[in-house]
Amino acid sequence: MKKITVLFVSLFLIISLNSCNGYKPIFSSAKFKFEIADYSIVGDKKLGNMIFSKLNNISRLNKNDPDKESITITIDVTKNKNATVKNSAGKVLEYKINLNTNIIVRDYLTNKEKINQNFDYSSSYKVQDQHSETVKSENTTVENLVEKTYQDLLIKISESVVK
């Protein structure tokens, strides 16, 4: 009985592994055949550089591809932080971070605009007992908003630039 069970489990695992042979990720780097020929960052330079470095890493993967498209990109990022909840003494209990990013992608040779998209995301975080924990929560919230902007920008690039 034990040998039959082991045989069935082994057979199931082999079939499962074999069914994954054709797996391809949706947003593989091979799909994004572009190079950033020029860029500019307006507004919050730190956040703009975070988005640019992620895009630049993808563009570098295809640097030897002759079919790549050269683009220029302008990244305009503004971050607003507002107190949303206060206690009766006026002490802030919760903040809301709003990240507004405007991305303009143009063809490098023709200067034709391919993408002009505004991404506006916000998220809240609570004030912690320790100030360092509050700063850590703020940084994590900002990183999550930047990542969401980057992911949505990849979708736009896959629709507009890479065809």
What do you see in this structure?
There is one protein chain. The protein is an alpha+beta fold and 163 residues long. The protein has one domain (32-160): Double Stranded RNA Binding Domain. The chain has three helices and four strands, in the order αβαβββα. The protein has helices spanning 2-18, 45-61, 131-160, and strands at residues 34-43, 69-86, 92-107, 113-126. Strands 1-2-3-4 form a four-stranded mixed β-sheet, with helices on one face. A hairpin with a 5-residue loop joins strand 3 and strand 4 (113-126). The longest helix has 30 residues, at 131-160. The protein starts with a helix and ends with a helix.
Features:
163 residues, alpha+beta, Double Stranded RNA Binding Domain, four-stranded mixed beta sheet, 3 helices, 36% strand
Beta-strand content bin: 35-45%
What structural class should be given to the helix and strand makeup?
alpha+beta
CATH topology annotation:
Double Stranded RNA Binding Domain
Q: List the helices and strands in order.
A: HEHEEEH
**Class, according to the CATH hierarchy?**
Alpha Beta
Overall tally of structural domains: 1
Number of helices: 3
Report the CATH superfamily: Lipoprotein like domain
The Rg value, from CA coordinates, equals 23 Å
Helix content: 25-40%
CATH architecture: 2-Layer Sandwich
What is the chains' assembly state? single chain
Shape, please?
flat
Give the overall average pLDDT: 84
> Main sheet, how many strands, which sense, barrel?
4 strands, mixed
Query: What is the β-strand count?
Result: 4
Low-pLDDT ranges: none
The span between the termini is: 56 Å
